């Protein structure tokens, strides 16, 4: 139920339709799907303290990162914009973009260091490797994130309240801000920001230079040993994430043919779509970016 509601809410937000998205959120809360309208994780662990922006000072690794900030920042700044710049346009999260450009480079994911990126940032990797909460004990990722001026990342929620997200701003960029729940914050160079991304969050960049942040995931300190072991054992691979993505959207197969993406619906989705087309009496329809649609007529191509 949470997944179905999440997909619907994300779809409304992605279309820029905030009013129906909020109405859908309210309905889900009324039905007991979530307790809070602004905390909508799919995999919820009961009993964890819920704070949109926890105090960074309670985590030892925050002091470790800030103590080594000069080394981390110097190395990252040295590669940005050069031939060794590893940051590329996001693929997995591009659907969250309402405007602008969002680029990423993963240093750690699926429990493994990403050697092609780490080879360009050995000092940063060595410092991060001293923090088991972000590596061997983390079910999440470590990545560089770069936002161009004019970027707007739509409201969205992370998948679980069992993971907190840590930002170490390399280039905070004046004019960039993040809302987590009802609280809005900005980044300060060299000072960590910690937030619970199971709360709805949204990012704007109204400044004039790129915002660059090192992002790291850690387990919520209230997660018990059993949940920790389960999360670490079930870290999804790329293949598993792709499979879940396709299943959530009712797709059985995707492929590129002559430069165009072709998608095949799964059995249930194909049956539903077929019934809709029968009711409409058309062989096909096309939906435009503005939400309007037009039918294809028999014998008439696009």
UniProtKB/TrEMBL annotation:
<dbReference type="InterPro" id="IPR039038">
    <property type="entry name" value="ASPH"/>
</dbReference>
<dbReference type="GO" id="GO:0062101">
    <property type="term" value="F:peptidyl-aspartic acid 3-dioxygenase activity"/>
</dbReference>
<dbReference type="InterPro" id="IPR007803">
    <property type="entry name" value="Asp/Arg/Pro-Hydrxlase"/>
</dbReference>
<dbReference type="Pfam" id="PF05118">
    <property type="entry name" value="Asp_Arg_Hydrox"/>
</dbReference>
<feature type="domain" description="Aspartyl/asparaginy/proline hydroxylase">
    <location>
        <begin position="66"/>
        <end position="221"/>
    </location>
</feature>
<protein>
    <submittedName>
        <fullName>Aspartyl/asparaginyl beta-hydroxylase domain-containing protein</fullName>
    </submittedName>
</protein>
<dbReference type="InterPro" id="IPR027443">
    <property type="entry name" value="IPNS-like_sf"/>
</dbReference>
